[in-house]
Write a structure and sequence with these properties.
This protein has 358 residues and is α/β, with parallel strands linked by helices. Helices cover 40% and strands 18% of the residues.
């Protein structure tokens, strides 16, 4: 029978299934027990469904999960913050999955915890560390514009406070803070940030090894939904990838729109799979193709780690500049190139530019 672990005074905030997965990975590596995981639930059904499944896994590991309908109406934020304030005041350590989240930035102003840990949120982690090192405002890489709208101005004080809380105190400072980063991404951190590598040890211990199929699988991306990549260019690239490599399945990103996926099925003949867990767990459980194709995204860094010791190969197709929309952030191309260029143990596909010209 599982014994009840001792409360460690650790409070974790997550808003996506991958963030919760990486909280579990961090707890496994740090040997942290009895976390209180607060799920700040998003709106979209696929994310909510995956979070429910991940919450079950967290409870199986002995952690407490508190589900907050943090976006359930105009009064939800105040109700959520009011209910979490006592926990924030008592917490000795706060673990967070999205330092760009306005919700998390607001909650950080309420805690006295001196031990702060940022767990991997994929490619966003690379941008966060870069902005922290340069002393910049915390702004998501794909956002376009000045970031000085009405809502940005309202939240600016909270964002500034969060950035200060996440910046290591100078040596000899009177009030020392411990800032940790738990990541599988290649990052160069500023002085004072303690890095622990996420090698997906919990995932590999908990699941698999997977049964491998003879086919090829394609991993979807939400670059169209975030306004970075043109939909027609993206669908054409998927069609050519499927034809060239004999792919049969397309694992949809949780944010991909139903209309786009319906069109993708009609134009490519691929079977669209909507995973009920993060792809790292789906791949580790299997069955999974011997070749996985992806565009620049977090999975080109995480899947080789989760599938370590198997015969699965991961390949990445670069995003050609001509695929970007007119409204894409000026930083988009450089950021996406960096995601691909720093990936380890993946194959770079050589025909990306040919796809762009048809």
């Amino acid at each position: 029978m599982r014994t009840t672990p001792t409360d460690t005074g650790t409070l974790a905030f997550v808003e996506s299934p991958v963030q919760l997965l990486n909280v579990l990975e961090w707890a496994h590596t740090a040997q942290a027990t009895a976390l209180t995981v607060v799920v700040l639930s998003p709106h979209d059904p696929m994310s909510r469904g995956q979070l429910r499944r991940m919450a079950e896994l967290a409870r199986d590991e002995g952690h407490s999960v508190r589900w907050e309908e943090a976006r359930g109406g105009p009064t939800a934020p105040m109700r959520t913050i009011g209910g979490l304030t006592p926990l924030l005041r008592r917490a000795r350590r706060v673990v967070l999955g999205d330092p760009f989240s306005r919700y998390v930035q607001l909650l950080l102003t309420l805690t006295k915890a001196r031990d702060l840990v940022v767990v991997d949120d994929g490619t966003a982690t690379m941008e966060f560390i870069g902005q922290l090192a340069r002393g910049e405002r915390l702004v998501r890489w794909h956002r376009h514009g000045t970031g000085r709208g009405a809502r940005d101005l309202i939240f600016a004080p909270f964002s500034a406070t969060a950035r200060r809380r996440l910046t290591p105190a100078p040596d000899g400072g009177r009030r020392r803070r411990t800032i940790g980063l738990f990541s599988s991404m290649p990052v160069e951190v500023p002085p004072g940030v303690h890095v622990t590598a996420n090698d997906f040890a919990w995932t590999r211990a908990r699941f698999g090894p997977p049964r491998l199929t003879r086919g090829t699988d394609i991993v979807g991306t939400s670059l169209v939904e975030t306004g970075v990549v043109d939909a027609d260019r993206y669908l054409e690239a998927v069609r050519v990838l499927a034809r060239t490599h004999g792919a049969t399945r397309y694992f949809a990103h949780r944010r991909e729109s139903t209309d786009k996926l319906r069109r993708l099925t009609g134009e490519t003949g691929l079977e669209v799979v909507r995973p009920d867990l993060p792809l790292e767990l789906i791949a580790r459980r299997g069955p999974i193709g011997r070749l996985i194709l992806s565009f620049p995204s977090t999975v080109v860094h995480t899947l080789p780690l989760a599938l370590q010791g198997t015969e699965v190969r991961v390949a990445v197709c670069d995003i050609d500049p001509s695929w970007l929309t007119a409204g894409a952030s000026p930083r988009a191309q450089g950021f996406l190139d960096g995601v691909t260029g720093t990936a380890r143990d993946v194959q770079r596909l050589q025909f990306a530019r040919k796809l762009a010209t048809g």
